[in-house]
Write a structure and sequence with these properties.
Distance between the termini: 84 Å
Oligomer: single chain
Number of domains: 2
Helix content: 40-55%
Shape: elongated
Structural class: alpha+beta
Strand content: 15-25%
Order of helices and strands: HHHHHHHHHHHEEEEHEEEEEE
Number of helices: 12
Number of strands: 10
Length: 338
């Protein structure tokens, strides 16, 4: 083999990339099942709750995520399947078996990461970078296949029957059966599509091309809807749509004011920490619940809160303002017509 052939052996040149990407996906399986049990719905760190964090600002696949987090049994089945698929894809990619088929799986998995969680990342736009780089590397590995130091290569060198089929080049390695005059266009179109996805999602999730840069993972944000006053009960829906995904928003006060700004009902930090769970009706897998010192609202969690207060029983008709305050000083308001 001359120097030119060595330099043009794309499958060998992408060996480090194949090993690293393979481990990236296999390690997800490894840490969820071997190092810890992250597939137990009742255990801290359940992967289904992490999936729930993606919900508020997912792009294109939000209805699918919503269905799964509203149906815990279906969510668990999908999380198990997803974990097994990641493990198989990562392992086979590292060994270089069915390299191109696994690269297509990497492309699909990375696209799922990008669309669902590309908006999450406190410092370096973490999930967006993982997604776009995964898509690009999946495409690159599809083009290169694997060469020396791969099972595909071993099978081809030893003339195994499977390598004689025309489809093996599409799912394994070897020369892609694309005409020489079409191949550059195939590479260009694929590359431009991936670059377009990169720019589009960078703008949608982070304002990376024009306008004001934004990061929805930095500060918590709550959406309050369906506020009602019924007898001695205050009820409303609260949904956390932004903020850091690794810990909840700590709500230290819920207050109701009349039109003159006079407080009608107040629920203090201690009241919320001791709140009866029967007053919280969660919609999704990520749950709003009383914490040690406050009410904890994880990213993506939504619940109907029903708070009794004797002082609400004989309120006059009018417009009232509900105010929820986070421990960091941020607050959100919602008007209620009685």
């Amino acid at each position: 083999m001359n120097n030119n052939n060595i330099k043009s052996d794309a499958g060998l040149l992408t060996l480090a990339l194949r090993l690293v990407i393979g481990w990236t996906y296999f390690s997800a399986f490894f840490r969820r099942i071997i190092l810890e049990n992250k597939l137990d719905p009742d255990a801290p760190g359940y992967i289904g709750e992490k999936f729930n964090h993606f919900l508020p600002n997912a792009l294109g696949i939000k209805p699918l995520i919503l269905y799964l987090v509203e149906n815990p049994d279906a969510l668990w089945v999908n999380m198990v399947a997803f974990t097994i698929i990641e493990g198989i894809v990562g392992l086979l990619l590292m060994f270089g078996l069915f390299t191109r088929l696994m690269s297509v799986a990497v492309f699909g998995l990375a696209m799922g990461i990008l669309l669902s969680s590309g908006w999450i990342g406190t410092t370096c736009l973490d999930e967006w970078q993982i997604g776009v780089l995964g898509i690009a590397t999946g495409f690159m590995l599809f083009l290169s296949g694997s060469s020396k130091y791969s099972v595909d290569n071993y099978l081809m060198k030893n003339n195994f029957a499977i390598t004689k089929h025309k489809w093996f080049a599409w799912v394994g390695s070897g020369v892609l059966p694309i005409k020489i005059n079409i191949f550059p266009k195939f590479v260009l179109i694929g590359s431009l599509f991936i670059f377009g996805m990169t720019l589009m999602t960078n703008q949608v999730f982070h304002g990376g091309l024009w306008g004001t840069l934004h990061n929805k993972s930095v500060k918590p944000k709550l959406e309050i809807t369906e506020g009602k006053l019924d007898g001695d009960k205050l009820s409303f829906d609260v949904f956390r749509t932004e903020g850091v995904d690794v810990y909840g928003s700590w709500v230290i006060a819920i207050e109701l004011f009349d039109e003159q700004g006079i407080p009608i009902a107040q629920y203090t930090q201690n009241d919320l920490a001791l709140l009866n769970k029967a007053h919280i009706s969660n919609y999704y897998v990520a749950k709003i619940k009383p914490g040690k010192h406050s009410l904890v609202i994880p990213l993506g969690a939504k619940a109907k809160m029903t708070l009794p207060n004797a002082g609400l029983a004989n309120l006059a008709k009018g417009i009232y303002t509900l105010k929820i305050t986070d421990i960091g000083g941020a607050y959100w308001e919602h008007q209620i017509n009685k």
